[in-house]
Design goal:
With about 375 residues, the chain is an alpha+beta fold. The protein has helices at about 10-15, 35-45, 50-55, 120-125, 175-185, 190-200, 210-230, 280, 290-300, 315-335, 350-355, and strands at about 30, 95-100, 105-110, 130-135, 145, 150, 155-160, 160-165, 165-170, 210, 245-250, 255-260, 265-270, 270-275, 285, 290, 345-350. It starts with 11 loop residues before the first helix and ends in a 31-residue tail after the last helix.
Length: about 375
């Protein structure tokens, strides 16, 4: 069998044709590592008046206190209003969990008035069945997969499903059926995503195979990667059942982070966490250590007088728990290597997919599906017309 090359492996953009640019916040304060700070920031905003409220808001060309926008899809009843922020009052919309940076789960105020480009088409399909693929150009692995709404930039976001409830896979029409004819059984959408996660190349091409044995090896690797990236289910353990623990108490507000490779220990000032495998400390995305970025986000000093300056006075216990889990996830992910065989048996090439009519994908598959299943509130309480 000839090997699959970068020239004949189909691009991810053809296999998962609908993509959306990631949301763009435009200001940092509507997101935070803890939900309580977000509610306090909102309270400070709505209590301020006139120029003080405008300065706290941090207006941009896309959003000011006078911008009229509708409610984010799926946010009815969560406290998110649609009156202009210059007159806004009342409680903070209930924060939601998002993926703000690689492997960094934080919280966001889900209010379109605060977000320069919220991408409502993503919010319409975000539910407990959805899985988002976000491209990380130049990084390894080249894809991050999450069950949370991703706010990572600059790569595009590709939802696995085009409609809520896990309906209508965002896959080239006929792709699953054609692979099924080669493999002897039609794969589920999540199986194909597992294969894509395990085999995607830095140039975002995805080699495919009709060989059942090779396919199964890719599925096992890909599903484990998905499990770790999505953090779905029981908390993972290091090999041998080890888990990182706090060996010396963390200070109330740590300022420095360092790693001792010989001791496999992570020090937050005088606080000590171990074991921390070297591969967890060395784990990078785009040339940036994930653990360092995670820590810096939580201890960097914001500008005084801004809403971002409203944050926990001491290091919360929940952050320690999240750090321990993140160390384990990164260590386990670092052990996994993409499925890259020198000669992929029974390759399914882009030319094959064109021959059977799977490619090129119809233009409609690259556009969002019509998913308006109920009225959405527009600016100033008006019914949104879509």
């Amino acid at each position: 069998m000839p090997s699959v090359t970068h020239d004949d492996a189909p691009p991810l953009a053809d296999l998962m044709p609908w993509s959306v640019a990631p949301p763009r916040l435009g200001r940092g304060w509507p997101a935070a590592p803890d939900a309580g700070s977000l509610k306090a920031r909102w309270d400070a905003l709505v209590k301020a008046e006139g120029p003080d409220r405008e300065a706290l808001f941090e207006p941009t060309r896309s959003r000011t206190l006078h911008t009229a926008v509708g409610q984010l899809p799926g946010r009815s009843g969560s406290g998110s209003g649609t009156e202009k922020l210059v007159r806004a009052s009342g409680p903070c919309p209930e924060p939601v969990r998002v993926l703000l940076a690689p492997y960094d789960e934080q919280w966001l105020i889900p209010d379109q008035r605060l977000i320069d480009a919220a991408r409502p088409e993503l919010w319409r399909v975000a539910d407990e069945r959805q899985v988002f693929v976000t491209e990380t150009p130049g990084a390894a692995p080249p894809l991050l997969v999450t069950s949370l709404l991703p706010l990572l930039r600059p790569g595009r976001v590709r939802p696995l499903f085009r409609r809520p409830g896990g309906r209508e896979p965002n896959l080239a029409p006929g792709l699953l059926e054609h692979l099924g004819s080669r493999l002897g059984g039609t794969p589920a959408p999540l199986d194909l995503l597992a294969w894509i996660t395990a085999t995607a190349r830095p140039d975002l091409t995805v080699p495919l195979t009709g060989d059942a044995g090779t396919w199964q090896r890719g599925l096992e690797l890909g599903h484990r990667m998905l499990w770790l990236m999505r953090r779905a289910g029981e908390r993972p353990k290091l090999p041998g059942g080890r888990r990182p623990y706090v060996r010396a108490p963390l200070p109330s507000r740590p300022l420095t982070l360092r790693y001792d490779r010989d001791e496999e220990a992570l020090f937050l000032d005088e606080g000590r966490i171990s074991p921390v495998p070297p591969q967890a400390w060395d784990f990078e995305v785009g040339g940036v250590r994930v653990l360092e970025q995670w820590f810096t986000t939580r201890v960097a000093l914001p500008e005084p007088g801004t809403l971002a300056a409203i944050r926990p006075a001491t290091w919360p216990q929940t952050w320690t728990s999240e750090l321990l889990e993140l160390i384990t996830v990164l260590a386990l992910l670092a052990e996994l290597r993409p499925l890259a065989e020198p000669e992929l048996p029974d390759p399914v090439t882009a030319a094959d997919l064109r021959e059977v009519g799977v490619l090129p994908v119809p233009n409609a598959a690259r556009r969002p599906a019509s998913v308006l299943e109920g009225p959405e509130e527009g600016p100033e309480g008006q019914l949104a017309l879509l």
